[in-house]
Amino acid sequence: MAIPMWLLDIDGVINALADEPPASVWPADQWITTTARSAGDLEWPLQAARPVLDFLREVHRSGRAEIRWHTGWQHYAGNVSAALDLPAWPILDCPEYASAPLGVPLTEAAEPWWKLPAAQRVADSGRALLWTDDDALRQGAAIEGALIIAPDEETGLTPSQLRLIDTWLNARGIAI
Ligand SMILES: [Mg+2]
20 to 30 Å CA-CA from 85: which of 33, 34, 59, 163? Predict the structure, then answer.
């Protein structure tokens, strides 16, 4: 059995979009604020909770899941990895990104969500799929058998969501 694949978004998942680090979710001293270069040479602000980053590093190190970026950052995600001291995960192949209606408000987008077909292909390949994306709920993303978690974009992943992921990964663990 192949190990699960975890599709990981950045903004609203590991980068909490609240104006200030949301200390109601993780203690105030657990937040890292930095920046990473994105498209157009923009230094984009990042605020990430250490326990979330530690959890991701542990999942990667132990091989409990294979992590892929699935994010509008595309190849700039490598800059986020560097800024937050995360492994340089590959970006999920997603040709639909090129034709995505960027800048169109989500509710008015005529096209299906560009992230969905690539995620569906992972599930169709028979891999157990975990997908964390703050837009998943709003976009009505549903994939049979997958665990899809849509954090509040203001906070990113919460302690209870990490526990849920931990339990889900445990249930799909392979003996090594
Ligand atoms: Mg997002």
Answer: 163
Q: How confident is the model at residue 40 (pLDDT cuts 50, 70, 90)?
A: confident
Report how far ligand 1's centroid is from the alpha carbon of 151 (Å). 9
In angstroms, what is the span from residue 6 Cα to ligand 1's centroid?
15
Joined tokens for residue 153: 């974009």
- Where in the sequence is the domain holding 156, given as residue range(s)? 5-171
- Cα 32 to Cα 26, 59, 87, 90, 175, distances in angstroms: 11, 20, 17, 23, 34
Claim: this prediction has a pTM higher than 0.70: yes
The residues placing their C-beta within 5 Å of ligand 1, an ion, are 9, 11-12, 134
Number of domains comprising the chain: 1
